[in-house]
Specification:
- This protein has about 290 residues and is α/β, with parallel strands linked by helices.
- It has 2 domains: about 5-145, HUPs (Rossmann fold), CATH 3.40.50; about 155-289, 3-Layer(aba) Sandwich (Rossmann fold), CATH 3.40.50.620.
- Helices cover about 45% and strands about 20% of the residues.
């Protein structure tokens, strides 16, 4: 599967967390020659509490504020050499974002997870779950554990890809390989053993699947084969992935995510693996349905 990222959308609330996400969006856009859409959604949750006249005034101020802040982001994008287009909408954040994704044929969404009202919910999982569960394209989440960097300081030197060998037919593998090739990064493919198994036994169990994974996903002449390693993890999947990402100082985690109703997710007693990793990773996480 060949990866094309023609259109990237950054969802921003103009907070420092969104600036950190912008840095990652810009570096990926520059490598793939992408157009970057800068999207902000004004959420008028207060409109039922005040008069229509006051609502119109407040929304007008919010629109002017958004346009002013958007100019700063556009300037940053121009300095980085990325073609950018602003998108400002009003309504329920997740619904407006989904409409923007479809209208502009977005190939990748980038979001930060700590900020003001709205995208701050991403940290708690509500909007985030709706975005990375329902978006028709992959979602790059830049979480609170990721330090804020300028685009020129963002590096993708090591990518971690958790996998289930069976064989691996997931699209996430193609994204992990493409990004590792574009950034000349190391790629660690990880298999988690949730039952009790010794390291020697785990190493032995992954040898044959590893050989097939390499043949299926990395071109024979690609030097990525020399930069790819395979590692077992042990215990609960989320904890094992986060531990290996920290131990290996991963710059990005790429993983598959199931399409689940966000309402169902909100009532789970324990977050699933993707939610746990997105919320707690110290590096950005790319989720692919």
């Amino acid at each position: 599967m060949e990866i094309a990222l023609k259109n990237i959308l950054l969802a921003t609330d103009f907070s420092p967390a969104s600036d950190a996400a912008l840095a990652h969006a810009l570096i990926i856009a520059s490598r793939y020659g992408s157009k970057l859409y800068l999207a902000h959604v004004i959420c008028p949750e207060f409109k039922d509490l005040i008069s229509p006249e006051m609502t119109e005034t407040i929304l007008g101020h919010a629109q002017a504020f958004a346009e002013q802040k958007m100019e700063r982001l556009l300037s940053t994008g121009r300095q980085a050499g990325a073609p950018c287009q602003p998108l400002i909408g009003q309504g329920v954040i997740s619904e407006v974002l989904m409409e923007m994704l479809h209208q502009n044929r977005i190939d990748l969404v980038v979001v930060g997870t700590r900020g003001r009202r709205g995208l701050r919910k991403l940290l708690l999982g509500s909007v985030a779950e709706e975005v990375f569960r329902l978006a028709p394209c992959p979602v790059l989440t830049v979480g609170p554990g990721t330090s804020e960097k300028r685009s020129e300081d963002v590096q993708l030197r090591h990518i971690l890809y958790p996998v289930e060998y069976a064989p691996d037919s997931r699209d996430a593998a193609s994204y992990a390989v493409s990004l590792a090739e574009e950034f000349h990064a190391e790629l660690t493919v990880m298999k988690v053993f949730e039952d009790m198994v010794s390291p020697p036994e785990a190493k032995a169990q992954i040898q044959e699947p590893v050989r097939h994974w390499m043949e299926d996903h990395i071109p024979a002449k690609s030097d990525l084969r020399e930069r790819t390693s395979f590692e077992p993890g042990y215990g609960a999947a989320g904890e094992a992935i986060l531990k290996l990402a920290t131990d290996r100082a991963a710059d990005l985690i790429v993983m598959s995510v199931r399409r689940l109703d966000p309402v169902v997710i909100a009532h789970l007693l324990k977050p699933d693996t993707a939610s746990e990793v997105v919320r707690n990773a110290r590096c950005p996480v790319l989720t692919v349905r």
